[in-house]
Design goal:
It is a single chain. The chain has about 160 residues and is mainly α. It has two domains: about 40 residues, no CATH class; about 110 residues. About 65% of the residues lie in helices and about 0% in strands. Helix 3 packs antiparallel against helix 4.
Length: about 160
């Protein structure tokens, strides 16, 4: 039987406790070098799966929201062998039947809300695209007016010098 990890309650020494844990891990046959490589392990966020929006194109994000707006009130139950697993599957199916009357309406409300949000996001993206196009046109007009003002100023200077 393994020794218990020992420490003084009055003066807790973390490094001592860690060394006891490492010794216990070595006794069990774990590779400490491999475990130390896990120190810098980072769980990848699901955000990485989202389309890139940094280029200013929000349409892929809006399309993703639209595609994922509808959720189902049930999940598929895998068909597995073995009596214990069949009893578990039966329990899931019975629970699903009893919860159907409640979950159906909750999910209908959620899907309605999600659909409204997806529609609103798509409308905002379309409006944003329209405003960006109008903004570009206004910049072109402003550049033309700036050139025209410059030419008018030039003509006025020429007329004053005459």
């Amino acid at each position: 039987m393994e020794e218990k990890i020992k420490f003084n309650v009055e003066n807790v020494n973390i490094s001592d406790i860690m060394s006891q844990i490492h010794k216990r891990m070595e006794v069990r046959g774990y590779d400490m070098e491999r475990i130390n490589t896990l120190k810098n392990f980072n769980i990848k966020s699901k955000v990485e799966n989202y389309p890139n929006y940094l280029d200013g194109n929000l349409s892929p994000l809006a399309n993703m929201v639209t595609q994922k707006a509808a959720i189902q009130y049930w999940w598929s139950i895998p068909n597995e062998s073995g009596l214990r697993k069949k009893i578990k599957i039966f329990r899931y199916k019975v629970t699903r039947k009893f919860m159907f009357f409640y979950m159906k309406y909750v999910m209908e409300q959620q899907n309605s809300f999600n659909g409204g949000v997806a529609y609103t996001i798509n409308a905002l993206v379309e409006k944003n695209d329209k405003l960006e196009r109008e903004n570009k046109e206004l910049y072109k007009c402003m550049a033309m007016l700036t050139k025209e003002i410059g030419s008018i100023k030039k003509k006025m200077k020429e007329q004053k010098s005459i």
